[in-house]
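Regression test case RT-17, inverse folding.

Input:
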């Protein structure tokens, strides 16, 4: 493991100050984007295809700091920790395992990487990565090898002073494009992905069997076990519900609930759109167990601007139309903000792939589920295209990092850069300040949050930090919590259990009567 720091001079640090000082008309309605900056060290710039917000303690002491962990693709994976407070990048090298097994037909492995893995943050703050690339030599393929799923898994602990990748247990089969979902007890279930036995047909298109094993990871033993079987699309949209079931929301239109305790599946409903390739879905903050699916493309048509909503708390849930976006999008990212709104970032308005010229969407959109009239509102436009392999995450200070993106028709260069969006709430006056909050909280317990604005606070929310790739965020969830003002502090009650908020680190935000959020304090819920 090597580690080096690089300060982005004025680009991020002074750039943020410039945004906050800006008086351009409309920022309080449309927000504003900061300057574009390079991602990584100058000699090792990379495209952040995978991004997770993780908790660190720089120097091994002092307060917890949220940093963005990213890794790219192909061969040796260049991973970075980026500190949004200082602009410093720390490089973490991943070297392929020498013990990779052959597919069974004698083809040697060409290379291995963490590209196209599934990932989530465990209850103790470690990042779990399931699968990735295990490429086999195949002369039928344009690059001379076939993309295949790696069967191994790794963890990395950002709280370590010098974090390194550690091999965890092997899965039964390979997984390329899997989804990791944390359960209420802290275990993780992984779904879908392509297996390690891949090849290409005579036209150069990859052929690889779909992994139908549903496997559960036990963090205590670092091992996997098969708990069910199900054929699901790659990177399926999976959401943990408050009753402990896991909901499959897309991109296929047939929705199901999965019981991880007995491995059974139950059909729920079909959504209206035939397929939502590289659309996305989120747990909708409008109410418990509501899911919103957004955009996507299908069947040779341009990207749809439609959305659909389902309320899984009902006895007979059904999909219903949601507010239509201003622009159709595929390959987008959706980010949950502290005020409960949903921010749609990037994507393209034509096809998921192909076409004579890609049509990137630069303007962001925001949906407020608590507004009297629910509709998507146009936000400010970004400077660079963010399409396939782009990522977007909520930062602890309430801004949104949008990064990456790879080659597309008419756009021949990878986007080895990022840009930060300041939502409208950052231009609506002074922000409340959290003076102190506990670092650990148990389920159902009350705890104190000290703030001088206690009598002005309208809501307190926990947001699980993001872990996103390929247009789907496997981790983010918005959890409002009950509170009461007690003079110069707030008494806050933690969620009742892990199905509502799986164990681990959360960003705690307090919002004033204008719905302006504080900078987050990190707390560990267990």
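Golden output:
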């Amino acid at each position: 493991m090597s580690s080096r720091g690089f300060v982005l001079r004025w680009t991020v640090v002074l750039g943020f100050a410039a945004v906050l000082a800006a008086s351009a008309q409309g920022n309080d309605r449309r927000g504003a984007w900061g300057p574009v900056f390079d991602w990584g060290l100058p000699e090792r710039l990379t495209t952040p295809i995978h991004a997770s917000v993780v908790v660190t303690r720089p120097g091994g002491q002092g307060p917890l700091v949220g940093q963005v962990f990213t890794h790219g693709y192909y061969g040796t994976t260049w991973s970075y920790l980026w500190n949004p407070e200082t602009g410093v990048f720390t490089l973490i090298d991943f070297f392929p395992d020498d013990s990779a097994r052959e597919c069974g037909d004698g083809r040697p492995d060409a290379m291995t990487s963490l590209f196209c893995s599934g990932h989530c943050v465990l209850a103790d703050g470690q990042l779990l990565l399931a699968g990735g690339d295990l490429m086999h030599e195949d002369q039928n393929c344009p690059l001379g090898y076939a993309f295949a799923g790696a069967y191994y898994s790794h963890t990395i602990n950002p709280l370590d002073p010098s974090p390194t990748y550690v091999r965890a247990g092997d899965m039964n089969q390979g997984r390329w494009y899997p989804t990791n979902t944390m359960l209420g007890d802290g275990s993780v279930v992984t779904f879908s992905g392509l297996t390690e036995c891949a090849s290409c047909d005579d036209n150069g298109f990859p052929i690889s069997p779909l992994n139908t094993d549903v496997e559960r990871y036990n963090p205590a033993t670092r091992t996997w076990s098969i708990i069910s079987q199900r054929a699901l699309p790659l990177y399926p949209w999976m959401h943990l519900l408050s009753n402990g079931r896991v909901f499959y929301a897309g991109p296929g239109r047939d929705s199901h609930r999965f019981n991880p305790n007995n491995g059974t599946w139950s059909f729920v409903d079909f959504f209206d759109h035939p397929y939502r390739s590289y659309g996305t879905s989120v747990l909708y903050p409008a109410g418990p167990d509501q899911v919103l699916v957004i955009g996507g493309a299908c069947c040779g048509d341009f990207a749809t601007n439609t959305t659909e909503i389902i309320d899984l708390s009902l006895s007979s849930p059904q999909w219903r139309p949601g507010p239509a976006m201003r622009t159709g999008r595929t390959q987008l990212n959706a980010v949950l903000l502290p005020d409960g709104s949903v921010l749609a970032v990037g994507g393209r308005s034509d096809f998921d792939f192909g076409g004579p010229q890609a049509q990137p969407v630069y303007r962001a959109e925001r949906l407020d589920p608590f507004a009297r009239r629910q509709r998507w509102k146009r936000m400010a436009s970004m400077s660079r295209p963010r399409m396939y392999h782009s990522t977007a995450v909520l930062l602890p200070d309430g801004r949104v990092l949008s990064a990456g993106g790879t080659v597309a028709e008419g756009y021949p260069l990878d986007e080895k850069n990022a840009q930060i969006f300041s939502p409208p709430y950052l231009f609506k006056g002074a922000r409340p300040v959290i003076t102190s909050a506990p670092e650990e909280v148990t389920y159902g317990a009350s705890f104190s949050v000290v703030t001088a604005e206690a009598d002005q606070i309208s809501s307190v929310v926990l947001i699980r930090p993001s872990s996103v790739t390929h247009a789907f965020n496997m981790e983010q969830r918005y959890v409002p919590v009950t509170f009461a003002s007690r003079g110069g502090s707030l008494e806050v009650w933690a969620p009742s259990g892990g199905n509502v908020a799986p164990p681990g680190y959360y960003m705690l935000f307090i919002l004033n009567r204008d719905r302006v959020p504080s900078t987050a304090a990190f707390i560990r819920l267990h």
